[in-house]
Specification:
The chain is an alpha+beta fold. Helices cover about 20% and strands about 45% of the residues. The strands form 2 sheets. It has a 6-stranded mixed β-sheet with strand order 4-5-2-3-9-8. Strands 1-6-7 form a 3-stranded mixed β-sheet. This is Iron-sulfur cluster assembly protein.
């Protein structure tokens, strides 16, 4: 299961409103090959749920994860930081054996 922190939830709602998207738009979280550690996170709004998607709702946010990505993301929390050490969404992934310095790619 993928969860969102309260801070990430608030940022998702803010961005969805800023982009003029309806409240039924979900967040699609996926894993793709690439980055300096081998795998990269992909995060985007999506209104189209696929038949093979794993769907979860946390704090009022609908989260879509494809089957393959779910293997890498189980137990992950999506967080958001806007501090001096970096700004943006962060993935707290217990499955990652290492991450790159920018936090956008990982290995298992």
């Amino acid at each position: 299961m993928v969860t969102v922190s309260e801070i990430a939830r608030n940022k998702i709602v803010e961005l969805r409103q800023k982009d003029g998207l309806a409240a039924d738009y979900a967040i699609r979280v996926a894993v793709q090959g690439g980055g300096c550690s081998g795998l990269m996170y992909d995060l985007q709004f999506d209104a189209a749920q696929q038949p093979t998607d794993h769907v979860v709702e946390d704090k009022g946010i609908k989260i879509l994860v494809d089957r393959k990505s779910l293997l890498y993301l189980a137990g992950t929390e999506l967080d958001f930081s806007d501090g001096l050490n970096g700004k943006g969404f962060q993935f707290k992934n217990p499955n990652a054996s290492r991450t790159c310095g920018c936090g956008e790619s990982f290995a298992v």
